[in-house]
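Note to self: keep these together.
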Amino acid sequence: MTLEALERDVRFIVDSHSTVTSVVLAPDLWQKILVALEEAEHREMVDLLTEQASIGPMAMATLGFSGGVDAWV
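Structure:
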């Protein structure tokens, strides 16, 4: 994402005191932000799993995983 894209795809709503009250994003920029957040969440999960796995099996058990993709307790 370039600065040019941000300037083109982001709008700020301000009140009479020039205080930003809202930010409006182009739909494609919003989707890019959602993807980036999801990828960051996945990296965080991988880091946590790697750290717990290096400690040992009992550490993995404390994560509350019961199997399957959506099975976190």
